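A protein record pairs a chain with a discrete description of its three-dimensional fold. The following entry can be read in just this way.
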Amino acid sequence: MKFISWNVNGLRAVLKKDFLTTFENFDADFVCLQETKMQAGQVELDLPGYQQYFNYAERKGYSGTAIFARTKPLKVTYGLGLPEHDQEGRVITLEYPNFYLLTCYTPNSQAELKRLPYRLEWDQAFRHYVSELAQQKSVIFCGDLNVAHEAIDLKNPQNNHHNAGFSDEERQSFSQLMAAGFVDTFRYFYPDQTDVYSWWSYRFHARDRNAGWRIDYFMTTPDLNDQLTDAKILTDIVGSDHCPIELDTADLMKKVD
């Protein structure tokens, strides 16, 4: 099975950059999007063979997530079930017989870390949510988690030590997420890989110089380790300041003995 995650930085914008052709070329079982920046009714997508699920932010042109799935889920849940965290359209959960799949767009701590306290509250609530799901069945969650976990995950760690996405507090929070029982699938396959990133600033020709950050992830529960076959960062695909990432697995729809 193939899973794709992509922060498109505006679905309407990326549609003007040949998104539908890219989507078709993915030939994926699931495509999870973040930062769709749209409201209901603003886009009608013709995606034959796919179920479409959207979670919209109350604020127009902001945040938002989507999942396109070849297989209809047993259940769809929007948000975390917490009003204080469910105004920005940041999470969708699909339930299948053998696993849960989530797309997540984690809040950015913003300049001078002015939203860091809220970000850490979000992290705790999200960690609790996925941990509860993991007590029931396997979990796969993906998205722009807005943190580079280790120095290996960004080009200039020294210069960004106290910036949003690489603060000590955010990195420690990500460590707590892993300690709660979730695997960073890219590092599972490529623990020492350097200079592979998923986001580049639009400034200073950062993408041309590959001065990027790895802040997009597929995370899974450890019981799926022997079902994982590869994790990829699709750096050649353009259209956003993020590139898509991919997780390949065995057929998780098959009945587990």
